[in-house]
Design goal:
With 261 residues, the chain is of the alpha/beta class. Helices cover 49% and strands 16% of the residues. The structure holds acetoacetyl-coenzyme A.
C-alpha cells in the first residue's frame, strides 16, 4: 500500500488498517494529515483485497486529540471555512465509501477526533478512551461534522449537552449514551476489533455494502423512500453470485464461500 507521511496503511487478511501517525501531537489533524487520510481511504476503497477498513491512532494515549490547534490558530475566516470543508469532505469519503469502516478508538477522541470516529460505521474503544467536542472552550464550534453527526448518533438533547458544555466523557459514559458499541481493555482492543471485522469479511461483500448504503441513505430519507431503497437493494442482491452461493450453501448445510461478485 502507498506510503504517507502522517498515516500508516497496511493490509492483511483482507483487512486494511489506517493508523493516524503523529503521536507527538496526539495525532492532531492538520491539512496534510487530512489529505493523507483521504488518499489512504480512497486507496482502500479501490483495493480489491481490502474488504474492511479499521482506523486507529498511533501511540497509547490518543486516537486523535482534535484538529491541530496550532495550525488553526492563525487562520482567516476564509481559510477556516476551507479547512472545515476539507475535513468534512475527507470524513464524508470515509462515511460513503463502499466498505465498512470501524473506528478502534485507543485514547483521546476529542473535537476532530470524535468527529472522525463518528464518520466511521461504528466505534469500539479502549477503557482509557475519552470523547468530547470541546470546541466551545476554544471559542469555535465543531467544523468536521460534529454538530451534525453527534445528534444523529446520541440524540439532540445529549448532543447539545456535550456541545454546549464541551465536557469530556469517559468510555463507559460513551457506551451508556450509545456513542460507542463496546469498551475493551487497551491490550485487547485490536484483537476484539479484528475478531469483529473478520466476521464482516466472511460475509457477502456486496450485501454488506448494500446494508451500509441502506442505513446511511435510509436514515436521511422518509420511511417510504427508505423502504423503496431497501427493496431495490434486496432485489439487486439476486443479481449476485454471492446470493446464489449463500442460499445454496445454507440448503446444502455448508459454509458459504463468497467471492464478492
Ligand atoms: N492540536 C495541536 N496539538 C495538540 C492537540 C491539538 N488538538 N492536542 C494535543 N496536542 C499536542 C500538545 O500541544 C502537546 O504538544 P507539545 O508536547 O509540543 O507541547 C502534545 O500534543 C501533548 O499534549 P498535552 O501535553 O496537552 O497532553 P496532556 O496529556 O496534558 O493533555 C489533552 C491531553 C487533554 C488531549 C490535551 O492535549 C488537549 O486538551 N488537547 C486539545 C483537545 C481539543 O481541544 N481538541 C479539539 C480541537 S478543535 C477541533 O477539533 C475543531 C474541529 O472540529 C475542526
Amino acid at each position: 500500500m502507498g506510503n504517507y507521511s502522517n498515516v500508516l496503511l497496511e493490509t492483511s487478511d483482507n483487512i486494511a488498517t489506517l493508523t493516524i501517525n503523529r503521536p507527538k501531537a496526539l495525532n492532531a489533524l492538520n491539512k496534510d494529515t487530512l489529505l493523507d487520510i483521504k488518499a489512504a481511504a480512497q486507496e482502500v476503497a479501490e483495493d480489491e483485497n481490502s474488504h474492511v477498513l479499521i482506523i486507529t491512532g498511533a501511540g497509547e494515549k490518543a486516537f486523535v486529540a482534535g484538529a491541530d490547534i496550532s495550525f488553526m490558530s492563525k487562520m482567516t475566516p476564509q481559510q477556516a471555512r476551507e479547512f472545515a470543508l476539507l475535513g468534512q469532505d475527507v470524513f464524508r469519503t470515509i462515511e460513503t465509501m463502499g466498505k465498512p469502516v470501524i473506528a478502534a478508538v485507543n485514547g483521546f477522541a476529542l473535537g476532530g477526533g470524535c468527529e472522525l470516529a463518528m464518520a466511521c460505521d461504528f466505534i469500539i474503544c479502549s477503557e482509557n478512551s475519552k470523547f468530547g467536542q470541546p470546541e466551545v472552550g476554544l471559542g469555535v464550534i465543531p467544523g468536521f461534522g460534529g454538530s451534525q453527526r453527534l445528534p444523529r448518533i446520541v440524540g439532540s438533547n445529549m448532543a447539545k449537552q456535550l456541545l454546549f458544555t464541551g465536557e469530556i466523557i469517559d468510555a463507559n459514559e460513551a457506551l451508556r449514551i450509545g456513542l460507542v458499541n463496546s469498551v475493551e481493555t487497551a491490550d485487547q482492543l485490536m484483537e476484539v476489533v479484528t475478531k469483529k471485522v473478520k466476521k464482516i469479511v466472511s460475509n457477502g461483500q456486496i450485501s454488506v455494502r448494500y446494508c451500509k448504503e441502506a442505513v446511511n441513505e435510509g436514515m436521511e430519507a422518509d420511511i417510504d423512500r427508505s423502504m423503496t431503497l431497501e427493496a431495490n437493494s434486496f432485489g439487486l442482491c439476486f443479481a449476485t453470485e454471492d446470493q446464489k452461493e449463500g442460499m445454496k450453501a445454507f440448503l446444502e448445510k455448508r459454509k458459504a464461500q463468497f467471492k464478492g461478485k
